[in-house]
Amino acid sequence: MNKLKCIIVDDEPIAQKIIEDYIKDYPELELVAKCNDVSSAFAALREHQVDLIFLDIQMPKNTGLDFVRSLSNPPKIIFTTAYPDYAVEGFEENAVDYLLKPVSQIRFAKAIHRVLVQHRTTQSSGKSEDPNESKWLIKSGGKTYMISIDEIYVITGMENYVKIICKDKEIVSLNTLGKLEKQFANTSLTRVHKSHIVNLSKMEYSESTSITVLGVRYLIGPSYRKDVFTKIKTLFGNLG
Fold first, then answer.
1. The whole model's pTM is what?
2. In 3D, which of 136, 135, 181 has the Cα closest to residue 162?
3. What are the boundaries of each domain within the chain?
4. Domain 132-236 grouped into CATH 3.40.50.10190
5. Could you count the other beta carbons within 10 Å of the beta carbon of residue 151?
6. Phi then psi dihedrals of residue 99, to 5 deg
7. Euclidean distance between CA atoms 70 and 55, whole angstroms
């Protein structure tokens, strides 16, 4: 198995050293950079093909959550933080795991086991992980739903809330379309209008200015039209 290239992003030298020492126990892992802040993390991603990030959440200027949300195609993420309140937000970003500081060796081992199992499964299948099949955590009221991209048909924006429309349910969540547009990049969920994200794999048919899903016609905004139809051709090819 090829080594997984890792970086550590944490503004605390002691926390960096603990993770660095743990990484040395795993021949499957290779530490390629240690970063004190988000800007140096961006530089590391430009320099290396990174497979795994050990990422602190609370850092000066930008948080780890902000950093992940800014990446269109993030690598595997293991969050490390002293604040348990961020756990659900961390998993919403499709993190592999969430480690509370001070990180114990046993808890670190469990997280790495999870990463390696995922990586071996992907390698043995000979396929890349399909983001449409990934599970996402969506908070709504006092509940947290685990759903896949493939279950979502449409997401409609309502100021600071969104309505996630599935075939058998609707979920209203405190969120924004802008945030979800970044979170679901590289999937079949596509922004078609300032008020709508549509799962192109669920569309019944498209017209020059609209897409119909579950019998409902959703307008395509003029500024989104080119990108929408380019993505349709990419997903389905030129038909007829």
1. 0.54
2. 181
3. 4-125, 132-236
4. no
5. 18
6. -105, 130
7. 14
